[in-house]
Automatic annotation (TrEMBL):
Stretches assigned to coiled coil: none
A single cellular component GO annotation: plasma membrane
Gene Ontology biological-process entries: signal peptide processing
Phylogenetic classification of the source organism: Bacteria, Candidatus Giovannoniibacteriota
TM helices/strands, residue ranges: 6-24, 45-61, 73-91, 103-120, 151-170, 190-217, 229-254
Organism field: Candidatus Giovannonibacteria bacterium RIFCSPLOWO2_12_FULL_44_15
Similarity section: Belongs to the peptidase A24 family.
Superkingdom in the source lineage: Bacteria
Protein name: Prepilin peptidase
Molecular function GO terms recorded: aspartic-type endopeptidase activity
Length: 255
């Protein structure tokens, strides 16, 4: 790994730490941009040494230095996820658009919102409109700036979101959340057609396999347990982004 890639990965870890703070503070009345990080159990302000992404969690063994309360696994997981994805997007950018730094900036922003939505949906079982619409706006803006907008492709790319909306509408929210359909609007614009179809199929299949695994492996999870689908949609979007060129629509059915 070259030095620039190490720097990108570390930068991703730092952004992941910031995204975690948004997840835990958003809609709580606390400022996201201001205010020192603290232990949510004892309220003690954390020192800089306790805020180093991933490493502080490992050094502290996942517990608060003052009260020994457990630190959420979401902190190191979110940081690592962001670091890995930033590195992956950077490598992809080097292959395709090495002379256009603006593309990398947009990819990092889009990646940040995808991680933010994933972490928030896992923790709160909901996707805030502001997150979903910000992702959609970034996808539209990047499409408008960096490529020609094909109206037919744009229309087709929105069909998976319409499908998810129909599941939400006809089931009255029992099968699918409305936030998932809103998320897929941005996914459609970002990936285009048929990439967004691959993303939807992958998310359903991975979600089904993960659901079965959770039912078999966790005694507290039942068939009626609420499992957020947004993270599976985002996993499908990410996989389709990196591998759509090697995927064939019909291979899903006739492989």
């Amino acid at each position: 790994m070259q030095y620039i890639e190490i720097i990108v990965f570390l930068f991703g870890l730092a952004i992941g730490s910031f995204l975690n703070s948004i997840v835990f503070r958003y809609n709580t009345g606390e400022s996201v941009a201001n205010g020192r990080s603290r232990c949510f159990n004892c309220g003690r302000a954390l020192s800089w040494a306790e805020l180093i992404p991933v490493f502080s969690f490992l050094i502290l063994r996942g517990k608060c230095k003052n009260c020994s309360s457990k630190i959420s696994w979401q902190y190191p997981a979110g940081e690592l996820l962001t670091g890995i994805l930033f590195l992956a997007f950077f490598i992809e950018w080097q292959k395709k658009f090495p002379d256009n730094a603006a593309v990398l900036l947009f990819w990092f922003l889009i990646c940040s919102f995808l991680v933010l939505i994933t972490l928030y949906d896992i923790k709160h079982k909901i996707i805030p409109d502001s997150f979903a619409y910000s992702f959609l706006a970034l996808a539209f803006l990047s499409k408008f700036i960096f490529s020609e907008i094909n109206l037919l492709d744009l229309f087709l790319s929105l069909l998976p979101a319409a499908f998810l909306f129909s599941l939400w509408f006809f089931s009255k929210g029992r099968w699918m959340g409305l936030g998932d359909a809103k998320l897929m609007l941005g996914g459609g614009v970002f990936l285009g057609f048929p990439g967004v179809v691959y993303a939807l199929l992958l998310s359903f299949w991975i979600g089904a396999l993960a659901g079965i695994a959770l039912l078999l492996g966790f005694s507290g999870i039942t068939i009626k347990s609420e499992i957020p689908f947004g993270p599976f949609l985002i996993l499908g979007i990410v996989l389709a982004f990196f591998f759509s060129d090697s995927l064939s629509f019909f291979s899903f059915f006739y492989a």
